[in-house]
Amino acid sequence: xxxxxxxxxxxxxxxxxxxxxxxxxxxxxxxxxxxxxxxxxxxxxxxxxxxxxxxxxxxxxxxxxxxxxxxxxxxxxxxxxxxxxxxxxxxxxxxxxxxxxxxxxxxxxx
Amino acid sequence: xxxxxxxxxxxxxxxxxxxxxxxxxxxxxxxxxxxxxxxxxxxxxxxxxxxxxxxxxxxxxxxxxxxxxxxxxxxxxxxxxxxxxxxxxxxxxxxxxxxxxxxxxxxxxxxxxxxxx
Lengths: 110, 117
Hints:
heterodimer, A: about 110 residues, mainly beta, 6-stranded mixed sheet, 4-stranded antiparallel sheet, about 0% helix, globular, B: about 120 residues, 7-stranded mixed sheet
């Protein structure tokens, strides 16, 4: 069945460092792909999404490109901030079901 | 790792009836549970946040009298869709978190697909 695999954390970086969080998926069809972020004590928030191959989602300096050939949707940011410390979830949705990765905790040190 | 279950996984009901969905944390105590709704190929929508022993906090636009949430114990939260209508058909997913686990991460249930005829 469909699944999402993302790199395990925690990931610890210094402020202004480059960030990559890897995400790969398996799916039978053509899913939409998402990155969600969870700040402490809060519910998930949509960070960005892409609905078809080669689409690039972007928001708040984060980017991810839907790569069908490598079944990947890696999250990147050129210069992270302390306020980016959170848990990041990669997810896919086919029809009305959503499947999440296990989440990657990101710590940004000042 | 921490496991969250949902029951039922799929339910079909007639318009006007009520449906209860259970969310259980199987091997940890969940102080906070979240309920989400998923529309086809859309992003997840947070419906409400429930803390054990207190009233749920609903997101703007979510009718609390229609979507009743009860978090009666540290391992169980229920979502009851009252007087269900076809537009309530959706995929409902819960998640649970606990300060005792990997710091404040969420663990997701497998979801419940509701179809209202």
